[in-house]
Amino acid sequence: AQSVSQHNHHVILSEAASLELGCNYSYGGTVNLFWYVQYPGQHLQLLLKYFSGDPLVKGIKGFEAEFIKSKFSFNLRKPSVQWSDTAEYFCAVSGTYKYIFGTGTRLKVLA
Amino acid sequence: DGGITQSPKYLFRKEGQNVTLSCEQNLNHDAMYWYRQDPGQGLRLIYYSQIVNDFQKGDIAEGYSVSREKKESFPLTVTSAQKNPTAFYLCASGQESSYNEQFFGPGTRLTVL
After folding, report:
1. Chain B residue closest to A10 (CA)?
2. Residues A22-80: pLDDT tens digits?
3. Which residues on B lie below 8 Å from A33 (Cβ)?
4. Per the CB < 8 Å rule, is B101 touching A34?
5. Residues 6+ apart with CB under 8 A from B38
6. Would you call A99 an interface residue with chain B, using a CB distance cutoff of 8 Å?
7. Residue A70: helix, strand or coil by DSSP?
8. Which chain A residues are Cβ-neighbours of B41 within 8 angstroms?
9. Which residues are within 8 A (CB) of A26 and not within 5 positions of it... i.e. 6 or more apart?
10. Across A80-91, average pLDDT
11. In which order are the strands placed within the sheet that holds B4-7?
12. Do B48 and A44 touch (CB under 8 A)?
């Protein structure tokens, strides 16, 4: 069955700490991978995406993600988080027109 | 100002009543989607439409219906058959390709009393 797993449901970090959010997927065939972010009171928006090529992709606000095909993973990273990164983060996989989203990770950054 | 609008932001209905949630986009996107967001469950696909006058069921379509008479509009009706309708509903649109990101509306929070 097609699925996306996000292992961390809630993460609390202090400012300047490093962040890594896990995402594993199960999907037959070629996949396109995304991370979306939902800041408090705002629309869900794209953080970064991977289709092909360099497995290390960079997104907005200093975020990056690495696609490891052998591990079916697409983990999100940021070297130093800020209070403004407090949000809910969703990993997603797309195939033929449909997206599958993970359950989300709520990140709280303490000032 | 391009984007996706959903109305209303908050909606209250009595149990047993059908209710229709509005979604309009002016991004000229072919595809539109409806998701339901519940705490701890992420986004689950209800229905999607790739072109006008065509739509497909998603993973949790039971108790919902949609129409796609215009490219810009994709209303969702939550029927009385939906057993647990209280939720946050998100509409999205995108170009007809899985390579493209989806653009999301602000959502409608439906509470059934």
Report:
1. B40
2. 999 988 777 889 999 999 989 899 999 998 899 999 999 999 999 999 999 999 999 99
3. none
4. yes
5. B44, B87, B88
6. yes
7. helix
8. 103
9. A1, A2, A3, A4, A5, A72
10. 97
11. B4-7, B19-25, B76-78, B64-66
12. no
